[in-house]
Design a protein that fits this description.
Layout lengths: L19 E3 L10 E6 L13 H13 L7 H14 L6 E5 L4 H13 L4 E7 L34 E5 L1 H15 L5 H14 L8 E6 L13 H8 L5
Parallel strand pairs: 2-6, 3-4, 3-6, 4-5
Antiparallel strand pairs: 1-2
Helix pairs in contact: 2-3, 4-5
């Protein structure tokens, strides 16, 4: 039987249902498994694509209730997708904290499904506000704004892992070289945090799902590709 091509009504129907894949080649020393939620495969290559649906949700909520629920999009989509695709075996969620919507929404849903699931946030070492530090400059775009996000319930978090800009950049490069995943700097930060957690002896055999928010191609002019750009600029031709 021939496969039928399902034509979507419009681009909004492509939002969500991003795949999860195991990390296999940068997990040396890990005693837990790490699966990456590839938000970079949204139509516009970013987790922010899900926020397109916020407009619809805002209108619907305004009509039905007159209020907006923080993190609702990730509660209704990202969380259920992770639960479904892991077959309910997910032990922990790891995600960078920008606005806090991903951990607030997806984290809340997963903890409702299983109270034993851990939720870990990720922030820059240089701006570790959630760990009681002071705001500071860093190179991890998309997280570490230096303020406490309004939508974030800190009681939802089991721990906030600190990752340096250098760690985030180097891990993003390793993901491209060893896993074939071209991701951004904040994805590198999330992966670095997940690897730290997956190396803890008490986490042996557990499944960590880490959210990769965006594709690396939008960082071509950033520090992420500085070394490659310098090599290209210094190339000589006979």
């Amino acid at each position: 039987m021939e496969d039928k091509c399902v034509i979507k009504k419009d681009v909004t129907e492509l939002i969500g249902n991003t795949p999860m894949v195991y990390l296999n080649h940068i997990v040396d020393g890990c005693v837990a498994r790490i699966a990456a939620k590839l938000e970079l495969m949204e139509p516009c290559s970013s987790v922010k694509d899900r926020h397109i649906m916020i407009a619809y949700s805002m209108i619907k909520d305004a009509e039905d209730k007159g209020l907006i629920t923080p993190g609702k999009i990730h509660y209704e989509t990202t969380g259920p997708e992770i639960w479904r695709d892991s077959g309910g075996t997910v032990d922990a969620l790891v995600a960078g904290i920008g606005t806090g919507g991903t951990v607030a929404g997806a984290g809340s849903f997963l903890k409702e499904k299983n109270t034993e699931i851990k939720v870990y946030g990720v922030e820059p070492v240089e701006s570790a506000v959630l760990n009681g530090g002071k705001p500071g400059k860093h190179l991890i775009q998309g997280i570490g704004a230096g303020i406490m996000p309004i939508v974030l319930d800190v009681n939802l978090l089991d721990e906030v892992i600190q990752v340096s800009s250098e760690e985030a950049i180097e891990t993003a490069k390793l993901l491209a070289l060893k896993e074939g995943l071209l991701v951004g700097i904040s994805s590198g930060a999330a992966a670095a945090a997940a690897i730290k957690l997956a190396r803890r002896p008490e986490n042996a055999g557990k499944l960590f799902v880490v959210v990769f928010p965006s594709c690396g191609e939008r960082y071509l002019s950033s520090v992420l590709f500085d070394s490659i750009r310098q090599k290209a600029e210094n190339m000589t031709f006979d």
